[in-house]
Amino acid sequence: MKKIFYILIVGMLFTSCKDSFLDVKPTTHIDEKLAFSSEKSLNAAVVGLYDFIQSSNTFGRVMVMNSEVRGDDMLIDQNNNWGYSSNDYNYAYSQSNSDGNTVYLKLYRIIEGANKIINNNDKGLIKLDDAVKEPYIAETKAIRALCYFHLVRLFCNPYIKDKGASAGIPLKMDSNPETHQPRGTVAQVYIQILKDLNYANGKVRDNLQDRITNVFVKGLLARVYMAQGENKLAIKLAQEALAGAPALSKSAYSTGVSQENTSTIWQLQYTEDTYAQFNSLESYFDFGFDDGTGYGTFGVAEDLYKNYSKNDLRKSWYINTWTYENKIPLKTPMTNVAFLNIMTSDKATYEKYAGGLIVKGLWDDAINGISPENLDKLARFAWTGDSGFKSQMSLYGKYPRFGAEKFDNPDKFGKEGTKLLGYVPMMRTPELVLIIAECAAMDKNYPLARTSLESIQKNANADVFAGADDALLKAIRLERRKELVGEGFRIYDILRQQEVVTRNNYWGDSRYKVIDPTKADSKAILPIPQNEIDSNSKMTEADQNPAYL
Fold it and tell me: Fewer CB in 10 Å around end: N or C, the chain?
């Protein structure tokens, strides 16, 4: 890995350490002795790592998009996507041309920055009391573990396939870019991830506004144990995390996860200086309602949407495309629920919009309304334009953006940019509950699995599962899809659950209708970047993943 090492450090050092780094301006270099001579300079070094974490090329957008569109719940517009994520959706990437190549480089760059801090501490170069520096070292190790966890799932077979015997990724533990490592095994990577997280557990602070907290560390441990099939450990850590996590809240569904959401454990928070505008995750969910000027290339397939029960609060996340074509006088994006309320309010309102995409002839004068059997017809929205989609709905209700005053000034960037801004969730409380539910069902602890699933469904005002125990696991996994859609979990879940991607052939080659990760040529895991193989003296072409040989 012949990469230039960048350690991002704060240019302005404050008189006291702040929990938030949103007002911090990173620079690309700082004298090493100064960097570790005080708590505020050590804090600055750790803060610098978050600049890459929130990048739109890593956790801020691309990694979420990559996982979602390679699954079966989200779609991209065929004709108006400007090429974004089409290779991911079509499994058309190669070792020389893949969004994964950028992710690979960026995540290792974060790891190198983390190693710099950790290595200097190991060498005794951080001259601070243990009580002062330990929370920062723990936070740094948690960051390193987070990056390795994503790398090993993106570029390697799932641990559960063969208990980690498959080829791993280079396990780089120092900051020297000239130090090369072989791929090793998946198991070796997981050992290091757990070592870092178990060190961090109990040491990372929980009073941080926009950084990794100890609750997140416990939750990440639960994720890792679940990926390994260590169900009891996953349950234990998820329960420990829940003890310090925000409670489930019905109001969280109407807020959207890109806001200050009561269910959020950790989210990437942006300022007007750091927000990626059109390259933000929210932009790809936003079709441009209320001059949001988003790309709007992401949508959710009807195959998932139809699984929500009638009164499920999560339906408020979905924005149908018809409302963008028709200027409904609302100040906020219209969800399917709000749309149905307007269409069924009175006959005159219905007839005003009926026709085209809105089905005519559904109003029943005998009941002065629309019958239940016809409501389903009204709820189906065709995708407009030349796309082949039969039903695609924006998830912008889950990822709304709020005002950023700087963008009201059209001269700030030479042209008018988006006026809206949003955050990216890294962990929410419902995930912890669903980890407990799924792992309990896997272990046939059906009472715990059932009560955990029920708590999620009741919180969402959804129909409560009442089926037999042998159908419980399937119901939990479906609930996980409905709750966590758009948050970057789907392809990882498919691989971990050893399932097959099955999706309607909305467009593209029929090869993309079914993707079986158990086949060597499925491309369900990404290729090792060709630049890595060429520059790493410990790797050869034979180290490439089989689908790309």
Answer: C
Q: Other C-beta atoms within 10 Å of 132: how many?
A: 13
Start-end of H helices in 214-297: 214-228, 231-244, 251-255, 281-285
Q: Which of 193-202, 305-314, 417-426, 540-549 has the lowest mean pLDDT?
A: 417-426
pLDDT digits (tens, 9 = 90+) for 345-398: 889 888 887 765 567 888 999 999 988 777 756 654 433 333 333 345 778 778
Is 525 in contact with 154 (CB distance < 8 Å)?
yes
Nearest-CA neighbor of 281 among 179, 400, 147, 126?
A: 400
Query: Half-sphere exposure (CA, 13 Å, Cβ side) for 508?
Result: 20
Instruction: Report d(CA 381, CA 359) in Å as an integer.
Output: 9
Please tell me the distance from the alpha carbon of residue 35 to that of residue 23, in angstroms, as a whole number: 19
Cβ(388)–Cβ(506) under 8 Å?
A: yes
Q: Which of 165, 215, 239, 225 is nearest to 194 (CA)?
A: 225
- Decide: 517 and 161 in contact? Cβ < 8 Å: no
Please name the amino acid found at residue 35.
Answer: A
| Helix H or strand E segment including 34 | helix 32-35
Pull the structure tokens for residue 295. Answer: 């790309």
Q: How far is residue 17's CA from residue 431's CA, in Å, rounded to a whole number? A: 31
E-assigned strands of 237-359? 264-268, 298-301, 319-320
Answer whether 50's CB lies under 8 Å from 211's CB.
yes
Question: Is the pLDDT score of 116 beyond 90?
Answer: yes
Residues 384 and 401: their CA atoms lie apart, in Å, by 24
Task: Return all residues near 51 (Cβ < 8 A) that are at least 6 apart.
Answer: 8, 26
**Whether the predicted pLDDT of 182 surpasses 70:** yes
Residue 383 CB contacts under 8 Å (≥ 6 apart), including other chains: 299, 321, 389, 390, 391, 392
Tokens of 46: 């750790």
Residue 45: name the closest of 131, 128, 151, 152 by CA.
128
Count how many residues are written for the chain: 549
Tell the residue number behind the tokens 């998946």, with chain if given.
186
| Residue 445: strand, helix, or coil | coil
pLDDT-derived band at 35 (thresholds 50, 70, 90) equals: low
Statement: residue 201 has pLDDT above 90? yes
Environment class of 67 (CB within 10 Å of its CB; exposed 0-12, middle 13-18, buried 19+)? buried
* Contacts with 481 (C-beta within 8 Å, 6 or more apart), sequence order: 73, 304, 307, 490, 493
**Rounded alpha-carbon distances, angstroms, from residue 232 to 281, 440, 477:** 34, 8, 18
Return the closest-CA partner of residue 280 out of 296, 299, 260: 296
Sign of the torsion angle spanned by Cα atoms 20, 64, 425, 261: positive
Largest CA distance in the chain: 83
Rounded to an integer, what distance in angstroms lies between the CA atom of residue 86 and that of residue 168? 27
Percent of the chain with pLDDT over 70: 78
Residue 39: count of CB within 10 angstroms of its CB: 17
Tokens of 109: 């760059």
Distances (CA, A) of 526 to 184, 489, 520: 17, 15, 12
The position carrying tokens 């996953």 is 234
